[in-house]
Amino acid sequence: MEKKQILTLMMVIILSSLVLSGCSENSRGTFGPAWDVAYKVPITNNEGKTAKELVEDNEDIVNNNGLIQYSKTEEMDIIDVGGKLTEVALPSVNKTVALPLIQLDNVINNNQDITIPAGVSSDSGITSTIIIDEFDSIDFSSNSEDESNNPINRMGIMITAPNGFDIDSVTLTFKDGSTLLGDVSFTNITQGTSSVQKFIDLTNSSITGDLTVELSNLSTSGVLNNDGAMNLAYSIDNAEISKVVNYTNLAATEVTQSTNVASVEAGLEAVAFNSGNLDLTILPPETETSGLNFAIEQLSIGTVSDGSADNEISLDLTGQSIDLINGMEIDFNLIVSGTNVTYDTTQSISVTGGFSSDTEIASVTVDNNLFDFTDANQALDEELLTEVPEDIDSISLNGAIARFVIDGYDIENLLINLDNAEFRAIYEDGSEATITLSSISGGSAVIDSTDKELSLLNDSGNDFLDWLQGLNHKEDITSIRLLGDARVEATGSVTIDSADQLNPKVEIEVPFDITLNKDIEDRAIPETVDDSLSDDDVEQIDNYFKEGQLIIEDFKNDLPVDVEVIVYLGKVDEWEGKDLDEYLDSLSEEEKESQLDKLYKSANKFKTFTLTKQDSGEKKVVDLTASDADWLTDDNLYVGVKYKVTGDNIVLKSTDEVTINNLYAKLVVKVNQNKE
C-alpha cells in the first residue's frame, strides 16, 4: 500500500513539471509553446530549353554552314493505288444458258380396268394398253431423289382384285413400245380389295406414248364364271424431267438456275459499288415452245437481287458488293406454265446485258497471286538536294532521322517494293555515284502497312548519311536524286478502296554541332504563379517571417558551359484575365517581344541560379529575405525564366538540353516567438 502511494506521487510530480515547462515564459515574454510553420509557394514546373531552341533565333550563332539542324522533307507524287487498281474491266453479258431440269408434280394420276376372262385361274398371257393422255412424251432425269432426299421419278402401281376370286400372285410388266420400264409383283389379294402400292423406277427412262402392261405368274383361288375387272391404279407424283412434249396442263412451276454468265479480270475476287446498275435481259428459247409462258421471278448475284417478275432485270448496285471469285455467277428463278407446252432442256435461254455507264466502283478485292498490280507502280524521279553541305562530314548522327515514309497507308497485305530505287549523286561533268535502297536496308527495301516507313540509316556504315559523307568532290555535285520505281505488290488477298492514295516522302533531320561565339539569352513564355496563400497566410508571413528559400527540386544541364537561370517575378496588369499562351500566340513577333519586356525588366529580377556545365542534381537553393517573402505574397504574379549562356567558341549539339523541375519558394514563419 505504501509503495503504490509513492508511485502515484512521482507521476504527479513528472506531469506537473511538463505542464509548467510548456507554460513557462517563451521568447516573447509570455507563457506557452513556440513553433515554426513553413509555407510552400509553387512558382513553375518542368521548364526547359534545348540548345537548338536557345540559339535558333540568334543570327550571330552559326555552325560551319549556317545551319542549326538540317531538316528536309521531300514530298513525292501520290501513288494512286485506289484510282488505278479499281479501274477494272467490268464484263458485259452475252450468254446462252440451257434450260434447267424441271420438277413436275402430279404428272399422271389415273386408273383403268384390266379384263380377266372367265375361267382363267392361272397365267394366260393377258396384256392391256395403259392410256397416257397427259403428254405425248416425257424424258426423266438421272436423279432418284430431290434436294430434300424425297424419292422422285417413279411410277406407283396398285391393283384391286376382281369380285369372284382371290389373287394369290401376279406380276405386271410395263413396256414403252419394246422398251422395258420395269415390273412389279403382288401376292395374296383378297377379292374386291386393293394391294399395297409398289413402284417402278423411271430414272433415266422415257415414255413416248401409251404403255403396255403384261400379266404373268397369275395364280388365283377360285374361278370366274364371267369376265372380271382387275383395277390398275398408276401415278407419277413427283418427277424431274429434261423434256416433256405437249404437256396438257403445266401449272406455274418454279425452276431455279445458277450459271456463270461472264468471265472477269484475272484475280478479281469482289467488287463493291458506290452507284450504278447491272441490267440484264433473259429471253426464252427462240424455237417454238407451244404456249410456254416464261418469266423471271427473281434474279440475284450474291446478295444483290431483284424480284420484279419480269424478263428485264435491273439490279441496283448502290452500296452493294458482288463476289466474283468464280466469275460472274447469277441465280435466277424461272416461272414456266401453260397448256399443251413443250419444255426441253436441250433448248437455251439467252442472258444479255451489262453494267450501266454510270457505275462507280467503291472498292475491289483481289488475289495477289493472279491480279496484275503493275498499273499502280510509280516511277520515282525526285530531287532531294541541289548541293551537299560542305561540312557534312562533321554532322552528329545522335538523334538523326532519315527515312522513306508513306502516309495514308492502311491497306492490309499491300506492299511497296523499293528494291529498284536508288539515290544518285550527279556531278557537273555528268558523272554519277549511286546507292540502292535495298543495300541500305540490308537486301530488301519493302514497306508494309504496319511500319509505313523504311529507315535510311543503319549501323553497318553504309547508310544514306554515310554515303553522303563519303562522296568525293562534294562541291561539284549539282543534284541528289531518288530514282527508280515503287512497285506495288501484295502478300495475300487485298481490298482496295477507290479513294486509297499513298503519299510517299523522304524525311531527313540531322542535328548539327553548333558553335557559340557570343553570349546568348533566351526568355521562356511566362506563367501565372500559383495563388494558393490565404489572406491569413499572407498576414502571418508579413508579420512573422523567419527565413525562406527559393528551391529548384531537380535540374539538368547537358551543355558544356555553365548556364545562368534568372527568375523574374512581377505584375502585368494587361495580362490579367487572359489566357496568356493564346494571347501571346496571337501577336506578331515584335508585339510579343514588347509584351515580354513588361515582365523581363530589372525591377522584376528576383533571383539567379547557376547550373554547372554537364551536371544534374536533385536540388538548387537560394536564400530569401523578408522583402523577398513580401514580393512572393503579392496577388496576380507572373513568373518568367531567362537562360543566359556565355559563348566563347563553345561547341553544342542541338539536342543538348537545360531543364529545371519544380521551382518553388519555402517560407518559414514564427508562431509565439519574438518578431525580431
UniProtKB/TrEMBL annotation:
This is Lipoprotein.
